[in-house]
Amino acid sequence: MDAFYSLPLTVPAYQQLANNVLPIVAGEQSQRPMVPDWHAPAVRVLHDFSSKPPLQLTPQTSLAEAEAQLLGHGEFDAAVTNSDGQLVGIIALQHIHSRKTLDLAQQQQLRWEQLQVEDAMIAVTQLPAVSCSQVQQARIGDVVATLQQLGNHYLLVHTKDAVRGIISALAIHRVTQENVPLQPPLFPFVESVDESVANSTEQA
């Protein structure tokens, strides 16, 4: 990959908190312009929780309700938070109807809609983390290189004391309109999710 580098992962100090839960920076909503390519600043693809609070679901939310909430809000992913509002995981539309959830429902002899968010989410302890200062100095292509090196679809972005936001491969694709080749692959899932969210937004 031309001229891009992989960001070094960090271990946030707040990961020492009990139960591996993380506080989320709160703030007001705002909008940012689209960016054209991977040479643009990486902050342009950061879902900054301080300016746009994430949709929040609980681990006990049913997958059917989680899907309805995501589509109803026009979101592709949501923060999974405990009763104290601390981040415990990330749930995305592609997780809800994944092979994992279908297999789990079959193994437990449950209907799919009886499964909960905690059955499908990515736990916060499984998310690679980089500091906000690193992201502020990086380009989108550097983040792509990092995701490709890790084979991961998400990067958690943190300050010293809290989660600042998250960067996803899907967000990069939507902003730049460029494929982000990963294993497991992101595509052709993107097209189907884009259509689902677009339809839900039109009906709202």
Descriptive labels:
8 helices, alpha/beta
Short account of what is shown:
With about 200 residues, this protein is an alpha/beta fold.
Q: Give the rounded overall mean pLDDT.
A: 79
Write down the CATH class: Alpha Beta
Q: How many domains is the backbone divided into?
A: 1
For the largest beta sheet, what order do the strands appear in spatially? 1-8-7-6
Gyration radius from CA atoms, angstroms: 17 Å
InterPro entries: CBS_dom, CBS_dom_sf
Pfam families: CBS (PF00571)
Domain CBS: 48-96
Protein name: CBS domain-containing protein
What does this structure look like?
- The protein has 204 residues and is an alpha/beta fold.
- It has a single domain (13-181), classed as CBS-domain (Roll), CATH 3.10.580.10.
- It has 8 helices and 8 strands, in the order E-E-H-E-E-H-H-H-E-E-H-H-E-E-H-H.
- It has a 4-stranded mixed β-sheet. A 4-stranded mixed β-sheet has the order 2-3-4-5.
- Mean pLDDT is 79; it is low at 185-204.
Set out the fold topology.
Elements: E1 47-48, E2 56-57, H1 63-72, E3 77-81, E4 87-92, H2 93-96, H3 99-107, H4 117-120, E5 122-123, E6 129-131, H5 132-137, H6 140-150, E7 154-158, E8 163-168, H7 169-176, H8 189-203
Parallel strand pairs: 2-3, 6-7
Antiparallel strand pairs: 1-8, 3-4, 4-5, 7-8
Protein name: CBS domain-containing protein
Domain CBS: 48-96
Organism: Pseudidiomarina planktonica
